[in-house]
Specification:
Elements: E1 13-19, H1 30-47, E2 49-56, E3 60-67, H2 72-91, E4 103-107, H3 109-121, H4 123-126, H5 141-144, H6 155-158, H7 165-177, E5 196-197, H8 200-211, H9 222-233, H10 237-240, H11 247-260
Parallel strand pairs: 4-5
Antiparallel strand pairs: 1-3, 1-4, 2-3
Helix pairs in contact: 1-2, 2-11, 9-11
Length: 261
Amino acid sequence: MARPPRIEFPGAFYHVIVRSNQKQPIFLEDQDRVEYLHRVSHYKEKCGFVLYSYVLMSNHVHLLIETLKDPLSKIMQLISFTYARYFNKKYDKVGHLFQGRYKAILCDRDEYLLGLVRYIHLNPVRAKIVTMPEEFQWSSHSEYIGKRKGLIDTDSVLQLFSDNVSQARRLYREFVQKALGTEQDETFYKTLDQQILGDENFLKKVQKRVDDTDRPIRKPSLQAILKAIEEVTGVHHEEMFSRSRTGDAVFARGLLNAVSI
């Protein structure tokens, strides 16, 4: 069955799962995770999206994203292409690092935000890597309990528990700990039309939002796309359209084809 096209519009809220090709590791050392988060941070600022939660496992990544300006497809192409380029160059590898098209589930934020944040932060526990989520360095859980600051604007989630920050962090922590030792909640994968997590009322709201928009998100002009790729790769647009087979030119050409789809 053919996969349906992405549903994209400003304010869309997604659970994104990026898996490696053939279950190979995406990160071979801690510096690789630092590099991946650096790209998330860079494009978060450049593309203007909200990041509610993340976890970097050995062969897959979970991101909880709300798009505000640029479409999810552009955001994920930029993050994945630039990281794969870094990884292949560092480890002298060729071929695809990531498994085909990433999975993006459009979710009812009001209904699923808290549950998804908890689900994502418990991934390392359920994988038996750690016994408590705060022991895992490569997730946003520690930001929610105040141990460090980073990529996440935690206010939106913590305010659902309390307006008092200290109390909100305590209640959030209790909320996560209540799910320790329980089975993985498969509710988060029971989607409508292969890509929507929500009831029929939410589906109607999504349909109205799409119908009210001329296009889910207006595609940027070719000139704007070329300029962005030039900034990312350092390859001039004339070289992208040439027959050059240098690594940088091939990478830029692939990025142009992916972002322009």
